Amino acid sequence: MTGSTVLRACGLTRQYGRDSGLVRAVDEVDLDVPAGQTLAIMGPSGCGKSTLLHLLGGLQRPTGGQVWLAEHQIDTMSERALARLRRDHVGFVFQSFHLMDELTAVENVELAALLAGQSPGRARKQAMYLLDRVGLADRAAHLPSALSGGQRQRVAIARALSNEPLVVLADEPTGNLDSAATLEVLRLFEELRVAGQTLVVVTHDARIAAVADRVIAMRDGAFADDTQLASAATTGTVYNGRR
Ligand code: ADP
User: Best of 24, 26, 29, 51 to mutate for ligand 1, by most ligand atoms within 8 A of CB?
Assistant: First the structure.
């Protein structure tokens, strides 16, 4: 693997069920995601997008093939080592935000750093920096219930960035949002792309493609199309053209 490849999959496969009820949710997928790339994975419901994202992030184990995160082959890794790798190098964003209801915005963002042993002062300072980055510094003391859907997802994105991840993996991040809130999140993804953050977004929403360097269309667990978009070249994203 080259130094600039953040994610790599070879023959990646995930089957569910047995015998007659067998589903190949992800079917022998090969994929390289270079550092700095914003990749959108699209396709109809049930084509395997979420399963693929979970395999890439080590949230699920493949039934075949291999997957690497940076230099680490994660499909054979122990559960404990995998949990540490996810904590240190991956930021997850989910459709339903997964924020802790009883914690304020800043407490949600700093929680992972505190659990990883960072001092309260440093964790708070970094969480405030991240909330500022997503445009929510003035909402730091609000509970999630006092925030709009778009604001909650931006808090979740700030939280995903708190470990300075090698890659952010987002699963239908705008799926629960109205149009205005979707635009807030898209704007933020565009900023992350320009900043060189590697980002893989699974989505139904064609507007995500507008902020991606590359769009993969999935069908029946496999890649039907893999398109490099011009936006990468025009904004100097660090994609190096290697596949
Ligand atoms: P998408 O994210 O594109 O909607 P999924 O990855 O959720 O697709 O699902 C792909 C296929 O795998 C679907 O046919 C789905 O029904 C099946 N599937 C997903 N999760 C499970 C599971 N835990 N058990 C059995 N089948 C599953």
Answer: 51
**Tens digits of per-residue pLDDT, 95-124?**
999 999 999 999 999 998 998 889 999 999
Residue list, ligand 1 pocket, CB within 6 Å? 16-17, 23, 25, 43, 45-51
Its pTM surpasses 0.85 = yes
Bridge partners for 164 per DSSP: none
Find the helix or strand (DSSP H, E) in which 150 lies. Answer: helix 149-160
Residue pLDDT, tens place only, 128-137: 999 999 999 9
* Domains contained in the chain, CATH given: 35-53+78-235 (3.40.50.300)
